[in-house]
Design brief:
It is a single chain. The chain contains seven helices and no strands. The chain is mainly alpha-helical. The longest helix has 21 residues, at 107-127. It comes from Pseudocitrobacter faecalis. InterPro entries: 4CMD/NDH-1_regulator, AhpD-like, CMD-like, Decarb_PcaC. Its EC number is 4.1.1.44.
């Protein structure tokens, strides 16, 4: 598969997982400084890794969230907490993931994530009709 094919496949997965509004916002903000990086993300992260057959998208979401909790990457974590619902991850599964992360990532990381997840839930609930 060539770069163009990986990019197109990646954009399809990126839209499915993150949603059209997020991806469109990213595309609207392309500039000479960030365009190559965004192309790399679409081709490699979404077009090569997220499309591999070994794990389904809900599992990839859960793994990604766990790693972002451990790394304390709040902006990416918030984005992936929102995206997890597009992959069928439930609030109860996220709660269990956060509880489990308290053991391995520490209570402060889990506590911060619990608050961030509640903020995401509140935003999603406000957006729902």
């Amino acid at each position: 598969m060539d770069d163009k094919s990986h990019y197109e496949l990646g954009m399809n997965v990126r839209r499915k997982v993150l949603g059209d509004s997020h991806v469109n916002r990213t595309l609207d903000n392309l500039n000479p400084f960030n365009s190559e990086f965004q192309d790399f993300i679409s081709r490699y992260a979404w077009g090569e890794i997220w499309t591999r057959p070994g794990l389904d998208h809900p599992m990839r979401s859960m793994i990604t969230i766990a790693m972002l909790i451990a790394l304390n990457r709040e902006a990416e974590l918030k984005m992936h907490l929102r995206a997890a619902f597009n992959n069928g991850v439930t609030r109860d599964e996220l709660k269990e993931l956060i509880m489990h992360s308290a053991l391995y990532c520490g209570l402060p990381a889990a506590n911060a994530t619990m608050h961030l997840a509640q903020q995401v839930f509140d935003e999603l609930d406000a957006e729902s009709p």
